[in-house]
TrEMBL record, chain A:
Chain positions with N6-lipoyllysine modification: 65
Protein family according to the UniProt entry: Belongs to the GcvH family.
Protein name (database record): Glycine cleavage system H protein
Cofactor: (R)-lipoate
Domain Lipoyl-binding, chain residue ranges per copy: 24-106
Lineage start: Bacteria, Pseudomonadati, Pseudomonadota, Gammaproteobacteria, Methylohalomonadales
Keyword DNA damage (UniProt): no
SUPFAM superfamilies documented for this protein: Single hybrid motif (SSF51230)
Function: The glycine cleavage system catalyzes the degradation of glycine. The H protein shuttles the methylamine group of glycine from the P protein to the T protein.
Entry-linked PANTHER family: GLYCINE CLEAVAGE SYSTEM H PROTEIN (PTHR11715), GLYCINE CLEAVAGE SYSTEM H PROTEIN-RELATED (PTHR11715:SF3)
Organism expressing this protein natively: Methylohalomonas lacus
HAMAP family, A to Z: GcvH (MF_00272)
A Pfam family per the record: GCV_H
Subunit structure: The glycine cleavage system is composed of four proteins: P, T, L and H.
UniProt record, GO biological process: glycine decarboxylation via glycine cleavage system; protein lipoylation
From TrEMBL, chain B:
Enzyme nomenclature, EC number: 2.1.2.10
One Gene Ontology biological process: glycine catabolic process
Lineage of the species this protein comes from: Bacteria, Pseudomonadati, Pseudomonadota, Gammaproteobacteria, Methylohalomonadales
The protein's name in its UniProt record: aminomethyltransferase
Family (UniProt): Belongs to the GcvT family.
Name of the top EC class for this enzyme: transferase
A Pfam match: GCV_T_C
A Gene Ontology term for the protein's cellular component: glycine cleavage complex
Length: 128, 382
């Protein structure tokens, strides 16, 4: 079974978001998503300082089988990327909500997080 | 992100192999492939299954492969009229890798041919079953009897411990060398065992009656060195071994010479051979053997870590397209991206630097001769 931490917000494009104390938002892909993709062998990280709109392709994760786009869950500017993934993309499989985070962004409007799914909503979405 | 596995949709319900229940029990991720429900991978995952095959042994269900029997007094000559092999020289229970060519000199399918007494048996790609059957029927259906044999499941046991695993069931397997077949009982089940495979490792393919397939598979999996592996690892293993996949390195417009399979055109079938030509597209294929083809298959080593996927154009330093990637992915053994592709001979002759565009970024591609991992076939008795 895929883990779905209650404190996170989820997009219907299989990313999770976590509001940080400094007002930035950490983003990664869900446990369900990493299970579906299988072993991840490469991550193309977004560009720092670049702004993305919600729904923009901002990163790519490549599994042994295929490449999958990651869509930015809310509008914002990238303030940090997880450099560890360059050498250890498997962190996404091993710890999708921890060491497998992909980027942090400064949201244009923190309230957008409220429009994302909660754990129950995302669970319903992936089971539908 | 798109997390859906896009499985090939077939019009009718996909068929199940004799090992379907076992796959489900083992927790396989099942996908629809060439009209069959097949395991893409098991819970261990593609990378682990890949490494396990190189270090110990993996059991693959390859029952989706097509199997044709060619019978009749003219079977040999009939079969030679659709492929460039020397079947007269093929000894009983020896296997020959060959290609069914079309009139344009392209490849309808790549097949393993076995001489079975006065008959011949063809093992063909699952996705080409119907095409092959129609082609064979059209071209040689009047000279011989062609039948589809669906009595057997096909299991592949691949990896360095495969021989030891089978030896425990029947020491007779030691008599087999690479590309040789024998009827051998395994666990009291009559099987046809061939020493062949699609991973670059020493290994066997075992034809087993459908009713006994599950029992044999479980017996093989009971060995402490054997784990199940799916189509995902099968593809990454064959790519490292530099083995062609029909639909990617081989196809109706790609000649065997372009694809690096000039060696499948037997000496006797070449321009000055005893039975020269006489197979579809021989004019183009024999000409290319002599003068060289317009493009050639090469191994690709992309710079950096990003895999270069099939279909990506290959360009020169000016951005002019000089070829394409036919297969590309991550090599678990080398821990780097690898690929196979076709490049214009002219560009190869002038050592033109080769690049691929990955998401708007230009990546340098070093060319190499496959395989990426040396083959470990058992060519002689140990």
């Amino acid at each position: 079974m895929a883990q779905l931490p209650e404190e996170l917000r989820y997009s219907n494009t299989h990313t999770w978001t976590e509001l940080q104390d400094d007002g930035t938002v950490k983003v990664g892909i869900t446990d369900h998503a990493q299970q579906e993709l299988g072993d991840i062998v490469f991550v193309e990280l977004p560009e720092e300082d670049r702004s993305y709109a919600s729904g923009d392709e901002c990163a790519v994760v490549e599994s042994v089988k295929s490449a999958s786009d990651i869509y930015c869950p809310i509008n914002g500017e990238i303030v940090a990327v997880n450099e560890d993934l360059k050498d250890s993309p498997e962190h996404i499989n091993e710890d999708p909500y921890g060491g497998g985070w992909i980027f942090r962004l400064q949201p244009d409007d923190e309230a957008e997080l409220n429009e994302l799914l909660d754990a129950a909503g995302y669970e319903e979405f992936i089971n539908s | 992100m798109q997390a859906n596995q896009s499985a090939a949709k077939t019009q009718s319900q996909p068929a199940r192999t004799a090992l379907y229940d076992l796959h489900v029990e083992l927790g396989a991720r099942l996908v629809s492939f060439a009209g069959f429900t097949m395991p893409l991978n098991y819970p261990a995952g593609i990378l682990t299954e890949h490494h396990h095959t190189r270090s110990q042994a993996s059991l693959f269900d390859v029952s989706h492969m097509g199997r044709f029997r060619i019978q009749g007094t003219d079977a040999m000559l009939a079969l030679e009229s659709v492929c460039p092999a020397d079947l007269d020289a093929l000894a009983p229970d020896r296997l020959r890798y060959s290609v069914l060519t079309n009139d344009a000199g392209g490849v309808i399918d790549d097949v393993i041919i076995r001489r079975a007494g006065s008959d011949f048996e063809l093992i063909a790609n699952a996705a080409n079953r119907a095409t092959d059957e129609q082609w064979l029927d059209e071209r040689i259906g009047e000279q011989c009897r062609i039948s589809v044999d669906e009595h057997f499941a096909l299991l592949a046991l691949q990896g360095p411990t495969a021989a030891q695993v089978l030896r425990d069931l029947n020491p007779g397997v030691d008599e087999l060398v690479f590309m040789q077949a024998a009827h051998l009982p395994l666990a009291h089940i009559d099987c046809l065992v061939t020493r062949a495979g699609y991973t670059g490792e020493d290994g066997f393919e075992i034809s087993v009656p459908i009713a006994a397939a599950d029992k044999l598979a479980r017996r093989l999996l009971a060995d402490s060195t054997v784990q199940p592996a799916g189509l995902g690892a099968r593809d990454s293993l064959r790519l490292e071994a530099g083995l062609s996949l029909h639909g990617q390195e081989l196809g109706p417009t790609i000649s065997p010479v372009e694809a690096g399979l000039g060696w499948t055109i037997a000496q006797t079938r070449r321009a000055d051979g005893a039975r020269a030509g006489g197979f579809p597209g021989s004019e183009r294929i024999l000409r290319e053997l002599k003068q060289g083809p317009a493009r050639r298959r090469r191994g690709l080593l992309p710079e950096g870590r990003a895999p270069v996927r099939a279909g990506t154009p290959l360009v020169d330093e000016h951005g002019t397209v000089i070829g394409h990637v036919s297969s590309g992915g991550h090599s678990p053994t080398l821990e780097r991206p690898i690929g196979l592709g076709f490049i214009e001979t002219q560009a190869l002759d002038s050592n033109t630097p080769v690049f691929a565009e990955i998401r708007g970024r230009r990546v340098a591609i070093a060319l190499t001769r496959p395989p990426f991992i040396p083959h470990r076939y058992q060519h002689s008795h140990s």
